[in-house]
Amino acid sequence: MNPSEYLAPLEEALRKMGNPERGAQMQAYMRDLYPYYGIQAKPRADLLKEYLQTAGFPENVESVVEECWERDEREWQYIGLELADRAHRKKMLEVPMELFRFMIISKPWWDTVDSVASNAVGREMKKAEDFRPTMEDWLYSGNLWLQRSTLIFQLKYKSDTDIEWLHQSISELKGNKDFFIQKAIGWALRQYARIDAEWVRREVTQQNLDGIARREALKHIGA
What domains sit in the chain, N to C, each tagged with a CATH number? Predict the structure, then answer.
């Protein structure tokens, strides 16, 4: 069964469940980048759970995820996220980082990128013998969303955070004044401040961070 055939009954269910008025509101919230059926997270998750119980989990999950990314409505990308995450937890992905990279650079916005980076990429890099070759490739890629991912993939690492990498990635990216980079710098530091507030204060000073990066980093610990 090809991906389109596998997803056909789910597409019908999504169309029936859609709420055009809410969809327009969701689209506006996301700066009109993508159209929406207008289905909120909980009903969408319940629908997917029910569908998987009926249709079974796709064997060709990478192709199904890619098909989800080809479709217009943003809910499809959210479904693709869930399928990829489940498949990764079940160790069903042959080349996980290739799929995750595709998911980050294709139809990118913070909603999908942050989910992939802080969950699936974070898990994969934590078990890698050495995450640096992959993360350095992303860091120097020139792609905003891959670079943001190098800052936030450790968000859930807590005391296992590699602070040398955090320092390196901030050093390389602090000159990029794009909101999504500066916000990610602050977010990563704010998260690690729960573990070592003094290190974060020193890092903010040493890196001479300002603006949103500084505000986010020191949000809960003060200067």
Answer: 1-94 (1.25.10.90), 130-223 (1.25.10.90)
